Amino acid sequence: MPNIKSAAKRVKTTRKRTLRNTIVKSQIKTAIKRFEEALANATPEEAQKTLRRALVVLDKAVTKGVIHKNKAARKKSRLTKRFNRQAV
Prior knowledge:
single chain, 88 residues, 3 helices
């Protein structure tokens, strides 16, 4: 339990940020899983829609500061590569 007012505020903000980060990271994982499922089972159009959605989710995570921009770029590149390999 913090004794200083600023320390109490840091605890409060840390909890909020941790919760937000957890939610956003979960959204990333879900979007990627949905893309992988669509790639395996659905039509190429459906896979492309889910790919776009995953890319948007990754970009939003970068904007919110949850993940680093290079990590997002790496994930986007790998997902796009997988889509292009499957499409050909």
